[in-house]
Amino acid sequence: MPYEPVTLGFKFAVRVHHLTGRDVLVVTCPACHKSYWVATHVVYARFHAHLPLEVAAKDFVCKRCGNTRDMSWRIERATGPEFPRSA
Ligand SMILES: [Zn+2]
Questions:
Q1: How far is the CA of 71 from the centre of ligand 1 (A)?
Q2: Do 53 and 15 contact (CB within 8 A), yes or no?
């Protein structure tokens, strides 16, 4: 299933509840460049729905190198016939 990056607004304004079931949160460690594809149900389970993702990102920890600073994130959205762009 192909994914494409989406922008849901200004970075500081994007909150947990903006994530949909076909989204994935891609978190990248600036220290070792490892990327983690985090399913949205995991994000919902760990953070309050109204928490900005920029605030949630302060709690992200790289499992490979232990880095916690400046963890970057972006949202990728599944596309394809089962996920029309209009939905
Ligand atoms: Zn790392």
A1: 9
A2: yes
